[in-house]
Design brief:
- This protein has about 280 residues and is α/β, with parallel strands linked by helices.
- It is built from nine helices and eleven strands.
- It folds into two domains: about 210 residues, Formyl transferase, N-terminal domain (Rossmann fold), CATH 3.40.50.170; about 50 residues, no CATH class.
- A seven-stranded mixed sheet has the order 3-2-1-4-5-7-8, with helices on one face. Strands 6-9 form a two-stranded parallel sheet.
- The N and C termini lie far apart (about 60 Å).
């Protein structure tokens, strides 16, 4: 696509006067909700990035919503990082690129394209729980949890914070219930931040320095995390935290024990008990 064609395409995205010009990428249901919010606000992204391969859970729905709103330029997965895509995006006069649960590490050449930066919506209360499986690590390490909209940098979830909100980790939470709550909170965080992005009245808060670990996807599969040794002496509270933290929507992420050469996975359901008067006992 020639640069003058790209510029003409951007001019026809029906973005209201004064609205930021954005590119958008994402996956999962939360990305659809954020995209629909933007479309309702009259902002049609100059392009859409969807996940590809086995990791693309909601790519077709995102394509459909984007296309029905008049969007035409779609990149798939790492195609977004290719040289020809970079040159196209440079001609789009972008203010922001907004990413929601799109698992791509961006090089500096992409980060430098939008005039104001690349924003990422992350299910964690940064700087706690950078990287993958944020609800699990919040329970395991007893750290704060929430949702954060932040600028991306070359480090993992290390960029300046625009807006964030915290939610308590309840004794009844598993990683799955906590994650579902985070999805609702992420949408609220983005909606609350949006007016400031439109009016250019947002703030950038540097994340505090310190030893804030960033977890990789494979970290949760470590044997010392998942395996429960049958003869091991362990405090009940620690064991319960591990079971809660590894109760996700994927049984292969659960704790397990082995007996008679057979492996058994464990997921838990935690239900507050009501007293005779009908109130929940704490």
């Amino acid at each position: 696509m020639k640069q003058n064609e790209v510029e003409a395409l951007c001019a026809n995205t029906n973005v209201e006067l004064g609205r930021p010009r954005i590119g958008f990428g994402g996956d999962r249901a939360i990305a659809i909700r954020v995209l629909d919010f933007l479309l309702d606000e009259g902002v049609v992204p100059a392009f859409l990035v969807v996940a590809d391969g086995d990791g693309a859970s909601h790519a077709e729905v995102l394509r459909d919503h984007f296309g029905r709103a008049g969007g035409r330029v779609v990149y798939e997965g790492k195609q977004f990082l290719e040289g020809v895509s970079v040159e196209e995006m440079r001609g789009m006069a972008l203010d922001f690129i907004i990413l929601v649960h799109l698992q791509l590490k961006l090089p500096k050449v992409i980060l430098d394209i939008p005039r104001k930066g690349v924003l990422n919506l992350h299910p964690a209360f940064l700087p706690d729980n950078r990287g993958w499986h944020t609800p699990s690590w919040a329970i395991l390490n007893q750290t704060r949890f929430g949702a954060t909209l932040h600028f991306m940098s070359e480090g993992i979830d290390e960029g300046d914070i625009v807006h964030q909100r915290e939610t308590p980790v309840e004794a009844s939470d598993t990683a799955d219930t906590l994650y579902q709550r985070a999805l609702e909170l992420e949408l609220e965080v983005f909606r609350e931040a949006w007016s400031g992005l439109v009016s250019n009245q947002y703030s950038r808060t540097r994340q505090p320095e310190g030893d804030w670990p960033a977890h990789r996807k494979r970290d949760l599969a470590a044997q010392e995390i998942q395996k429960v040794e049958m003869e091991e002496q362990v405090r009940a509270g620690e064991l319960i935290r591990r079971l809660r933290a590894l109760t996700t929507n994927r049984i292969e992420e659960a704790c397990y024990f082995e007996q008679n050469s057979q492996k058994y996975r464990i997921q838990v359901s935690i239900v507050p008990v009501a007293d005779a008067k009908g109130s929940e006992l704490s």
